[in-house]
Specification:
β2 and β3 form a beta hairpin. The strands form 2 sheets. The protein has a two-stranded antiparallel sheet with strand order 1-4. A two-stranded antiparallel sheet has the order 2-3. By secondary structure, the protein is an all-alpha fold. 71% of the residues lie in helices and 2% in strands. The two termini are 38 Å apart.
C-alpha cells in the first residue's frame, strides 16, 4: 500500500484531478495511514519502549513541518497563520482527543487506566511550556503590531523549543526510561484497594527506579499484555522502517494533493480559513490516533500517552524552529499568537490535564472530559 500510494502521488502531483481520481486518492490516503500504524508498531516493538513511541511522533512531525512549509511557500489566503493553526490544532487534538479516546477505551474494558504520573506529568509540563512560549506570548508582546514575534523573539522561541524538546528526549530515553514505561494495571488497582504494595507483582521483582505510585503504593513499571512477544528480525524491521517512511510521505503528499480541494470546500462552506489547519492536523495525526487506541486496548495506556504528548511536543519543538529558519526567505508576516478563545481552551486543557495526570490513574470521566474539550475546539474552529 505505501509503495502504491507513493506511485500514485508521483502520477497525480501538480495535476488537476477529476472527481473519480480524487476518490482513489482518498482511499490510498486512508490505506497509507493504516499501513503507517502497522509498520510503526513493528519498528517500535523491535527498538522497545519508550524509544519506540518516539519514532512515529517524530516521523509524522517532520513530514508535517514539510507540509506546512510547502503550503506557506505556495502562498494564498490564510497562509500567514497556517503554522499557528496547524500546531495549535495538533496540541488540542493530541492532548484532548487522543488522550481522551485512549482513556475512554482503556477504562471501558478495565474500569481504571493506570500510568506513570512522573513521566506523563513531565511530558505535559513540557508541552504546556512550549505552547505558551510559542503560541501565547506573541499575542501579548509589544515589539511588533499584531500577534507576531520580532526576529529576536522568534529566534529565542525557536532555540528554547528545540532545547526543551531535545532535553525531554534524553530524559525519556536515557536518564529516566522507567518513567515512560507501561505500568502493571493489576498491581496498581490491587495495591490501591487492599493497601498491599505490589501484591501481585512477579515474585522477586523489585520496583524500578522511577516507578510511580497509587495512593502511596508503588506501581511497577513493567510491560504488560503482548510486551513479551518475539521481536521482529532485523530484516523485517528495516523493511518496515522503509515502508513507514514511504507511508508517511504518501500521507502528507496525498494530503497536499487534496489541500486545494480542502481549501475550496472550506471556502465554499463559508468556514474560517483556520479550519484548513485543523483538517491538516486531523489527517497527519490519524496514524498516532490509531496506534494510541490500539495500545489502550492492550492495557498499555502509558504508551498511548507517550504517543499523544510526544506528538504535541514534537509538533511545537520541531515546527517552530523550522518555520523560524524558513522565515528568512519567506515573504509576508508569520502570525503565531493565539486569539482569546484559543487561549481559554489551552488554559482549560492545561488545568484538566494536570488534574488527570496527578493521581497516576484515570476513570471514564477523565476520558469524557478530554473528549468534550476536543469537541469544543473543533466546534469553535468552525463556529468562532
Amino acid at each position: 500500500m505505501p509503495l502504491l500510494a507513493v506511485a500514485a502521488l508521483v502520477a497525480v502531483w501538480g495535476r488537476s484531478l477529476p472527481a473519480a481520481v480524487e476518490v482513489v486518492v482518498v482511499i490510498l490516503l486512508a490505506g497509507s495511514v493504516l499501513a503507517a500504524v502497522h509498520h510503526a508498531e513493528v519498528v517500535a516493538h523491535r527498538v522497545g519502549e519508550p524509544f519506540g513511541s518516539l519514532i512515529l511522533a517524530v516521523a509524522v512531525t517532520v513530514i508535517e513541518v514539510g507540509l506546512i512549509i510547502t503550503l506557506v511557500v505556495s502562498g494564498g489566503p490564510g497562509t500567514a497563520s497556517l503554522a499557528r493553526d496547524t500546531v495549535f490544532a495538533a496540541v488540542m487534538i493530541t492532548c484532548n482527543g487522543i488522550v481522551g479516546l485512549a482513556l475512554l477505551v482503556a477504562t471501558a474494558r478495565r474500569g481504571v487506566a493506570a500510568f506513570n504520573a512522573e513521566g506523563t506529568g513531565a511530558a505535559l509540563a513540557t508541552v504546556l511550556t512550549l505552547a505558551t512560549l510559542s503560541l501565547v506570548l506573541p499575542t501579548f508582546t509589544t515589539g511588533t503590531p499584531g500577534p507576531e514575534f520580532t526576529g529576536a523573539q522568534l529566534a529565542f522561541a525557536a532555540v528554547a523549543s528545540l532545547v526543551l524538546y531535545a532535553l525531554f528526549v534524553v530524559v525519556q530515553n536515557v536518564r529516566h526510561r522507567d518513567y515512560f514505561l507501561p505500568v502493571d494495571h493489576h498491581t496498581a488497582s490491587r495495591g490501591a484497594s487492599t493497601g498491599t504494595p505490589g501484591a501481585d507483582a512477579t515474585p522477586g521483582q523489585a520496583t524500578p527506579v522511577g516507578a510511580t505510585s497509587v495512593d502511596g503504593m508503588p506501581v511497577h513499571a513493567t510491560p504488560v499484555d503482548d510486551a513479551h512477544a518475539a521481536a521482529p528480525s532485523t530484516r523485517t524491521t528495516l523493511i518496515s522502517l522503509g515502508l513507514l517512511v514511504a507511508a508517511l510521505v504518501a500521507v502528507v503528499g496525498l494530503a497536499k494533493v487534496e489541500s486545494k480541494t480542502i481549501e475550496a470546500a472550506v471556502t465554499g462552506a463559508g468556514l474560517p480559513h483556520t479550519v484548513v489547519g485543523v483538517v491538516i492536523a486531523l489527517l497527519i495525526l490519524l496514524p498516532e490516533t490509531i496506534a494510541a487506541v490500539r495500545n489502550a486496548r492492550r492495557n498499555r495506556v502509558q504508551i498511548s500517552l507517550n504517543l499523544a504528548l510526544g506528538s504535541a511536543m514534537a509538533s511545537i519543538g520541531l515546527t517552530i524552529p523550522a518555520i523560524t529558519i524558513a522565515s528568512i526567505w519567506l515573504d509576508g508576516p508569520l502570525v503565531l499568537g493565539l486569539g482569546s478563545t484559543q487561549i481559554v481552551l489551552l488554559g482549560l486543557t492545561a488545568g484538566v490535564g494536570i488534574l488527570t495526570v496527578m493521581p497516576g490513574r484515570a476513570t471514564v470521566l477523565q476520558g469524557a472530559v478530554h473528549l468534550s474539550l476536543c469537541a469544543a475546539f473543533l466546534f469553535l474552529a468552525t463556529n468562532p
